[in-house]
Design goal:
The protein is α+β, with helices and mostly antiparallel strands. 20% of the residues lie in helices and 29% in strands. It has one domain. The longest helix has 12 residues. It is elongated, with a radius of gyration of 17 Å.
């Protein structure tokens, strides 16, 4: 589950909307250098999504690939959450600033890139 909230930087005073996490159908990553967010949808990474869930699991994500590929889906090896996260981070690649998108990057101020921030407004949760 992800959320949006107002945040304020203690270094430069910038107040902005912070986006943290993903949803049922997408993964939210941040750049480890500048804090820019990237959202990767399950339809962008169908093989990884199906490998994580397993073909036999009933889920909308498992129906992303066309039915003609059902034989190929059965052959996919099931992977752990750690392997899935590594695959998503590899798919996301590098940010324009030279950093890399990860699940572990801390939120950063969009103005000065400081991590010295705090939430100052209410949260809006989504899934």
């Amino acid at each position: 589950m992800g959320h949006y909230s107002k945040a304020q930087c203690h270094d430069c005073g910038e107040v902005y909307e912070e986006h943290i996490g993903g949803s049922f159908t997408s993964q939210g990553l941040k750049c480890d250098k500048c804090g820019k967010t990237m959202e990767i949808h399950c339809h962008d990474i169908p093989e990884l999504s199906i490998q994580l869930l397993g073909y036999e699991d009933y889920c909308a994500v498992a129906r992303i690939l066309p039915d003609k590929n059902s034989r190929d889906r059965k052959k996919l090896k099931r992977i752990s959450l750690e392997e899935f996260n590594r695959g998503v981070e590899e798919f996301a690649g590098k940010c324009d600033c030279g950093g890399k998108y990860t699940f572990d990057a801390p939120p950063r101020c969009p103005k000065c890139c400081s991590t010295n921030i705090k939430e100052v407004g209410s949260k809006l949760f989504y899934d």
